[in-house]
Amino acid sequence: MAHSSHPAGNASENDVFDLEGDTLQEECGVFGILQHKDAAALTALGLHALQHRGQEAAGIVTYDGQRFHSERRMGLVGDHYTDPQMLEKLPGDVAVGHNRYSTTGEVALRNVQPLFAELSVGGIAVAHNGNFTNALKLRREIIAKGAICQSTSDSEVVLHLIAQSKQQGSAARFVEAISHMEGGYALIAMTRTKLMGARDPFGIRPLVLGDLDGAPILASETCALDIIGAKFVRDIENGEVIVCEKQEDGTVKITSSKPFAPKPERVCLFEYVYFARPDSIVAGRSVYNVRKAMGRNLAREAQVEGDLVVPVPDGGTPAAIGYAQESGIPFELGIIRNHYVGRTFIEPSQQIRAFGVKLKHSANRGQLDGKRVILVDDSVVRGTTSTKIVQLVRDAGAREVHLVVASPKITHSDYYGIDTPDPEKLLANQYTDHDEMCKFIGCDSLQFLSVDGLYDAVGGAPRDPKNPQFTDHYFTGEYPTRLVDLEAENGPLKQQSLLREAG
Ligand code: AMP
């Protein structure tokens, strides 16, 4: 019988199982491989390359022909999965892995993925990047029918729906389960013989298919393929479900279907702005080149006079290169980043987050003293980073500090797996007056890239409000899907008013 060493019981004793209260948002990276003798080690490497998508916890599940093995840990991939003894605990030629960054402060081990369950069709592990916008509603229904939820993760709903499905076989059950889900997701699942993947109907979250010596791989980004020398085969399309299945003759059969109502592809623009790694190719576009183009467009739009273009590293660096090239103003590393501190957002409270900015960035005084500095960052969310960095640059003697931001004003929260605070905590929501916002940040001038400038950088035509080419709700308020759970919580009026603000 298949067995799991799934450590669901390891959660801290103090954890409160508040199933109703969790808002269920996660940023994450996923990786899966079928039919490779080094499945766990390759998955660990893939997750390491995807570390930027989630730094709080990581997990790997494998199947060795007889048993499932599951190891899940809080912390970075490199903290746990480079240890040969750990990899010995994960034998087998099928593996799925997951990097997690919860956005809610709910960091218990019971939520660390991949989630695993023994079903009537055998064991199944699920790893999910994104956010289901109707997961709370579905979970309440499932619990009302008597199910026992072990985590507060929205992904667990998928496991329950697979378990409850009357379809024959795990692939058909996987499809049926996903057909109930709304939101933005890249989902992978593994059984004893299959690696399956699905991308939401709009393709909001990315998922790619790779190949290593005939072993199929599913991963959030191409950088996870590059690290192991795997070939990029193609993007999983929006609304596509892919099933890779071991055959008796030792080959792997790959089948693809589009079982859901067709929707236009609308990749999340925030993957290009901030989330994806610059060396990844997302939906056919080099993230690095897109970021440089954002900087070029920003330079055309901003027309600020200055002596130096200085990136807020690392996020602002490609855009600053583009800005400097376009404007002809010299590029200098006026801020040095300490790489041994996690991303700003990793600290769950505002107080520690503010402190974290100082830990992460220091001024390169010799470059900044007496200069008119054009500071380039990829985005302003709460304004914490910008405020601190502008002060840092001023304290280092800069004569003027002009902040140019390589994305539009973030006025709306994300509900598809990108960490954003509640709307009232977004700086561009708090300050509708541009000058007031500038004053709050403490800069001499402030400029954001226009929505059309961003569309152009990603290779699109100006935004067509009737048919936007990308998912861009954080800038426009136009959400591509229903927000079922949010509406249930806040009522439809609040959501309508969110939409009206965008107008
Ligand atoms: P804030 O300090 O709240 O304005 O956040 C903006 C800074 O955080 C920018 O420098 C971005 O590089 C970075 N950032 C933007 N979006 C996110 C996110 N979803 N998670 C973590 N960091 C982010």
TrEMBL record:
Keywords attached to this entry: Glutamine amidotransferase, Glycosyltransferase, Purine biosynthesis, Transferase
Top EC category: transferase
Classification via Gene3D superfamilies: 3.40.50.2020, Glutamine Phosphoribosylpyrophosphate, subunit 1, domain 1
Reactions catalysed, as given in the entry: 5-phospho-beta-D-ribosylamine + L-glutamate + diphosphate = 5-phospho-alpha-D-ribose 1-diphosphate + L-glutamine + H2O
Keyword Transferase applies: yes
Record-annotated active site: C28
Lineage top rank: taxon: Bacteria
InterPro entries: GATase_2_dom, Ntn_hydrolases_N, PRTase-like, PRTase_dom, PurF, PurF_N
Domain Glutamine amidotransferase type-2: 28-247
Coiled-coil region(s): none
Pathway(s): Purine metabolism; IMP biosynthesis via de novo pathway; N(1)-(5-phospho-D-ribosyl)glycinamide from 5-phospho-alpha-D-ribose 1-diphosphate: step 1/2
EC numbers for this chain: 2.4.2.14
Membership in a protein family: In the C-terminal section; belongs to the purine/pyrimidine phosphoribosyltransferase family.
Role noted for this protein: Catalyzes the formation of phosphoribosylamine from phosphoribosylpyrophosphate (PRPP) and glutamine.
Name of the molecule in the record: Amidophosphoribosyltransferase
Organismal lineage: Bacteria, Pseudomonadati, Pseudomonadota, Alphaproteobacteria, Hyphomicrobiales
Gene that produces this protein: purF
